[in-house]
Amino acid sequence: MVLRLLLVALTSLSLAAPAQAQSNTVILSTTTSTQDSGLLDALVPLFEKQTGLTVKTISVGTGQALALAARGEADVALVHAPSVERRYVEEGKMRNRRLVMYNDFVILGPEDDPAKIKGMPKAADALKRIAETRSRFVSRGDKSGTHVLERGLWKQAGIEPKGTWYIESGQGMGQTLGIANDRRAYTITDRGTWLAFQKRISLPILVEKDKPLLNIYSVMEINPANGPRVNVAGGKAFADFMVAPETQAVIRTFGVDKFGQPLFVPIAGKTAADFQ
């Protein structure tokens, strides 16, 4: 009898141990742009100091970030592909989607601008001209938020990009910028990552400020039904942290000292209707 009770106690402890360990760690599934821009380097230590929790960051394209969360392999998601995010919320995989911040996408290219797109007001028209001139273009090709935006622009332009001029990197934003720079090619990036990398590359902004280039980031909590290891409390704590006034104040000035302008604009409390 004593042996049986001891075995039951040991079994209970072994089952409880992973949950206890998990409760002190928050797995953040996010995009490469939040990592490459340096924003997470500023925010994560603040969160850890405030809460005593430890953040493990998985930085991939938005498509992969959401897929990880949908499998219960993350506790909170910080991403930037609104149409894809809404689908996951509708399916019940994510919940409590809240807007956090925005910056914008820009089209970069070589200084000699072989497709002659500089200053064009419409991003889709610029991509159409790149395709017509068969000028090299590097796509992330990774189902990230940036790739989703790019594919939408090609569709708007009425073009299915293919051929030797169209290069899919399958890499994050920083690596894709490096490839585009080496190939003297055009590419699309978020402004924050371009600012962070502008001393490493020589690709100027050629097209910007078109309405479809708006880049909105949201934070979402993960449905615990996605998997047994979802840290619901930790995920909610990080999501709440991202929209808290103190965090939004840090986002508002992030990058000013280094780049002379903020990399993101905080928008906690706003809705999609505010950007129609």
Helix count, per DSSP? 12
Mean pLDDT: 91
- Measured between the Cα atoms of the first and last residue, the distance is 69 Å
Helix proportion range? 40-55%
Order of helices and strands: HEHHEHEHEHEHEHEHEEHHHE
Radius of gyration: 21 Å
Give the overall shape, derived from the CA principal axes.
globular
Low-confidence stretches: 1-21
Explain what the structure shows.
There is one protein chain. By secondary structure, the chain is α/β, with parallel strands linked by helices. The protein has helices at residues 2-22, 32-36, 39-51, 62-70, 82-90, 123-132, 145-157, 173-183, 191-197, 232-243, 245-253, 256-259, and strands at 25-31, 54-60, 76-79, 94-108, 137-139, 166-168, 186-190, 205-207, 214-222, 265-266. It has 12 helices and 10 strands. Strands 1, 2, 3, 4, 5, 6, 7, 8, 9 and 10 form a 10-stranded mixed beta sheet that branches. Helix 7 (145-157) links the parallel strand 5 (137-139) and strand 6. The longest helix is centred in the first third of the chain and has 21 residues, at 2-22. Mean pLDDT is 91; it is low at 1-21.
Compact overview of the structure:
The chain has 276 residues and is of the alpha/beta class. It has helices at 2-22, 32-36, 39-51, 62-70, 82-90, 123-132, 145-157, 173-183, 191-197, 232-243, 245-253, 256-259; strands at 25-31, 54-60, 76-79, 94-108, 137-139, 166-168, 186-190, 205-207, 214-222, 265-266. Helix 6 (123-132) packs across helix 7 (145-157).
